[in-house]
């Protein structure tokens, strides 16, 4: 009974029958295990030992677990997903080292390009829940990257602006992001990178317009 892998049929005192598969990293008396778990005398019959995997034939290299099936590489949607996931992971690592996430970077970039913005306007532009936007802004304020003030024309509105420290942090982040782009695009020369960027912008514009066009068609 001392076998690392067993399978078979178990019978309890009432005569009930059920299938059993047991796996262990060390020799195990499975009857004793099931007697302890069920608090009843169990009979395992018949027992079979799982055969170990056969070694690869001589001269044959087993497939690597990280190898992507060639047919999947014909799917542009998969390629964009896979490359995007890798890029996002590398960018997230650089941001996390500064206590930031991608949403923080997005808000900082918008404030740098558009100037001070109301919280409600930021939430609308980013299409996120206003309460989530508040948490992002609070993080930036805590880190000293942003500052919130009441709108003089309407005290109910809160305006968010970058601090000088936030502007400096964004410049530093932009340099790190550029180095990340260089790492990801290493196989491409300058002309190929520009061509890829142009094509991706066209696809992005198409996908960005689609929801708006669908909304206009609704009755």
From TrEMBL:
<dbReference type="InterPro" id="IPR039422">
    <property type="entry name" value="MarR/SlyA-like"/>
</dbReference>
<feature type="region of interest" description="Disordered">
    <location>
        <begin position="49"/>
        <end position="68"/>
    </location>
</feature>
<feature type="domain" description="HTH marR-type">
    <location>
        <begin position="76"/>
        <end position="205"/>
    </location>
</feature>
<dbReference type="InterPro" id="IPR036390">
    <property type="entry name" value="WH_DNA-bd_sf"/>
</dbReference>
<dbReference type="InterPro" id="IPR036388">
    <property type="entry name" value="WH-like_DNA-bd_sf"/>
</dbReference>
<dbReference type="Pfam" id="PF13463">
    <property type="entry name" value="HTH_27"/>
</dbReference>
<protein>
    <submittedName>
        <fullName>MarR family transcriptional regulator</fullName>
    </submittedName>
</protein>
<feature type="compositionally biased region" description="Pro residues">
    <location>
        <begin position="52"/>
        <end position="68"/>
    </location>
</feature>
<dbReference type="InterPro" id="IPR000835">
    <property type="entry name" value="HTH_MarR-typ"/>
</dbReference>
């Amino acid at each position: 009974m001392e076998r690392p892998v067993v399978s078979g049929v178990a019978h309890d005192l009432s005569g009930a029958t059920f299938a059993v598969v047991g796996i262990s990293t060390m020799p195990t008396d499975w009857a004793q295990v099931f007697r302890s778990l069920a608090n009843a005398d169990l009979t395992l019959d018949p027992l079979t030992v799982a055969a170990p995997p056969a070694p690869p034939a001589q001269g044959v290299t087993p497939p690597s677990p990280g190898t992507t099936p060639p047919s999947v590489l014909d799917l542009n949607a998969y390629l964009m997903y896979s490359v995007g996931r890798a890029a996002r992971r590398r960018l997230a690592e650089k941001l996390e080292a500064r206590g930031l996430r991608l949403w923080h970077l997005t808000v900082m970039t918008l404030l740098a390009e558009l100037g001070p913005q109301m919280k409600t306007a930021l939430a609308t532009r980013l299409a996120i829940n206003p309460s989530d936007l508040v948490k992002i802004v609070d993080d930036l304020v805590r880190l000293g990257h942003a500052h919130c003030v009441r709108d003089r024309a309407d005290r109910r509105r809160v305006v968010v602006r970058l601090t000088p420290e936030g502007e400096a942090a964004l410049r530093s982040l932009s340099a790190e992001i550029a180095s990340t782009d260089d790492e990801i695009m290493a196989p491409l020369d300058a002309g190929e990178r520009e061509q890829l960027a142009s094509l991706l912008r066209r696809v992005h514009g198409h996908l960005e317009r689609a929801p708006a066009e669908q909304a206009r068609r609704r009755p």
